[in-house]
Amino acid sequence: MRTFLLSKNLIVFTTVMFLSSCSKKDQGPASSDAGILQYSLFPGKDFSTIDFSGHQVIVRVPDSVSSGKTLVALFSTSQGSVATVNNVTQLSGKTENDFEDDVSYIVTASDKITKQVWYVRAANYDYSIPWGLGHFIHRKVSNEKAYNWYIDQGTSGNYALVNCGPASVTMAIRWADSSFSKTALEARQTYRSEGGWWLTTDIDKYMTDNSTTHAIISLNTNADSTRELLIRQLDHQQIIILCLDMDHVRLTGRDDYHVDKFYPTSPGWGHFIVLKGYRKIDGKTYFEAYDPYSFGSANTDHSLKGQDRYYRYEDLASACLPWWNFAFVIAKKGESLNTETIRKKLNPAFVPVAHNF
Asked: How far is CA 214 from CA 161, 242, 248, 261, in A?
């Protein structure tokens, strides 16, 4: 009887060891692979580029997706690995994240030792991240034209360094009237042909001389209020000329970005620019500008740096406030200014010139 029990126990022990050995063999050794293999936020509607060597995923979602908040990713990682974001284990098709900033995944391999950091960047426009704007554009307005009306003041003759006024007003009139053919050099020769800065009064007179419907309105002392005032003008398909101290506008952080100032300045650096649109993106507001101070300097896509330049609303407000806290609003040829602008229109005779003028 004892011999039978011993034999039975030996058979059970041998069977367990065999099954255990087979199970471990089937699993194979633990892997050190810790990568993201597939990734999608809107399967079948988005396009993902996975940089395996750089540990980065770029996801281009449809234009219609205006927010990156509470999105759920469908993804796969290396066999046996686990992905976390801010110490929260990620489950494909279930876990929500905020993609209005880069999302940092930590992928831990099945060996429980090897870890890799992966960055996922999502955007609803191809240019928003490369240009330095951000990820998700919530609203965009651009009062652009089908023809080219940008002017580089570097091409405006002997006084090019100070011809931002003649260049900006000529751009504005070209925008308003496609048949307008005068140049920034011709504007310079009309007023202060001997050189020097143009005054804000010169801008007003030149538009009046060339039958351009416009008004001068006062800006606010609060940056948020100024932002909303400028947005309303642009929403009515009008454009704006600002006169400001560009030293209050921050310098760009990267040469390939289209955001922020692309040239050095010093205090009291008076300048004219044209605003033609805006972008609301990731909770920030940028105004889309034609800045004439390019002097041939170009972006990697060969566009001039001052063309389609994006400035933060708070920078523009702080740059206008101590310099000239007003704005020229321009309407298209044959159209009237909107009711609010007409109501706010100031008598040019009682508007002071810019600070250092």
From this structure: 26, 13, 26, 27
